[in-house]
Amino acid sequence: MTQRRLYQSIAEDLKNKIAEGEYPVGSKLPPERVIAQDFGISRTVVREAVIMLEIEGIVSVRKGSGIQVISTNTIQMDSGNSRTETALRLLLSEMEKAGPFEMLQARQMVECMIVELAAKNITNEDIAELEAIQLRAQHEDRARDSSWDRDFHIRLAEATGNSVLAVLVQLMWEGRSENPLWKNLHSHIEEKDLNSWCAEHQLIMDALIARDPASARKAMWAHIESTKEALYNASSALGDMYDEDPVASGAI
């Protein structure tokens, strides 16, 4: 079972328990650590499942109050599907539903290969445009707007000279931008991590300028590892709220 299907399965199980009255509206779900133990899963998966329930309007997470059940009705979101849905739409839809860590795993595998090819094929024009994005990143309010991050990775993929790879990376980023789980976690990422990403982009740039595929791959791998860590830290911060035991904290 994939990470995405696992957190969705856990969320569905919790929704069923709520619908059946085991956790009625007004009650609280067990703390994150208890849910993880009961299902025999990691706390990261529990966090993604609870975020999904929060987005659907079923639970509310507040520090000191734990995970409160507020509704048994799921908020219906427009999936954009139709009878004439193309394979492209299906692919983007899957990316929009993927767990954040699942998406990062895919990006790491794909973009590390892409940056190797880019280091072999990159032109001076490509380098100039990537440097312009880097310059913009250094002057933007990174806590507010990280479009430079997306632009850098998409432009880098275009530097491979392979249009299929460029479209694939763009699809991955479009899927990320529409992914509610990613949006939730990204809003909790600290500015220092965004600053670090900008510096890591420069290390990738240095390898590209040197036309060094091995160093470029190493720099990209390290960059996405750093992103994973920042995302985990953000989920841990949210996990502190999810893990609040109302009885132990004296909230009830």
From TrEMBL:
Entry GO MF terms: DNA binding; DNA-binding transcription factor activity
Keywords noted in UniProt: DNA-binding, Transcription, Transcription regulation
Superkingdom of source: Bacteria
A Pfam match: FCD
InterPro entries tied to this protein: GntR_C (IPR011711), TF_FadR/GntR_C (IPR008920), Tscrpt_reg_HTH_GntR (IPR000524), WH-like_DNA-bd_sf (IPR036388), WH_DNA-bd_sf (IPR036390)
Listed CDD domains: WHTH_GntR
Domain HTH gntR-type: 4-72
UniProt-recorded name of the protein: Transcriptional regulator
